[in-house]
Amino acid sequence: MRVRGYPAGSPCWADVSTPDPVASRTFYGGLFGWTWRDASVDGYVNFYLGDQAVAGLRAVPESAPTGWMPYVATDDADATIALVRDNGGSVLSGPAELSDAARIAVVADAAGAAFGVWQRLRFPGAQVANEFGSVCWSELATGDPDGAKTFYGNVFGWSDRPAETADGTPYTEWYREDRTLAGMIETGPLFPAGVPAHWTVMVLVEDCAESAGRALELGGKVQLTPTDIGVGMYAQLIDPQGAAFRVLELVPELVASL
């Protein structure tokens, strides 16, 4: 499905930071069939699914952390940054113009989980959704769920409703104006000791196990093997440069409803 814009407060884009753009392009191209175009003047590359932009790639120094990061749409990046600070968060970089595409900033919530703020200039964000190979979900893992509910509610107007995973673990779904946006899980026994608060980006795939196997063939790692979550299967993968992400396979009836 082609997407032409995003309401403020909606996840709208995701990108991966990597010290080796060539290797990352090869990995994600082989895994998801993504293509890319020549880098812009600031070294930023868009991945494409068919002819539609699906995600981004940012080159960083070898000493910088690698990883995937979701962005949330805003009508005013500076005003959103002020709300982030007012609610105990911090600004890690920006705001700055990403060429003529958007005015962006990288911020962290009150528990330290980093995410991006995206104010559209020319480019609204991902042009495709609900198709295999597109980013489909973002999930916050945090040791302070109540604090996160307050933070994201105040900054983006998100509401929360309780849910649970297939094994009964408490889960939170975030929504705005009846549109489900993202999820949250509390760090606990399922996570390594001391894991910091963080966001994870998920990509919709047709076959979770096949995607995990393909990632291994391409030089990646499987951090969490394909796991049944009731509505489908997911696995956590790590690309050859160390960036973690998940692949999500949904049951056929959910795919048909997208």
TrEMBL record:
Lineage start: Bacteria, Bacillati, Actinomycetota, Actinomycetes, Micromonosporales
Top-rank lineage group of the source organism: Bacteria
Protein name per its UniProtKB record: VOC domain-containing protein
InterPro entries: Anthracycline_SecMetBiosynth (IPR052164), Glyas_Bleomycin-R_OHBP_Dase (IPR029068), Glyoxalase_6 (IPR041581), VOC_core (IPR037523)
Residue ranges of domain VOC in the record: 10-120, 134-250
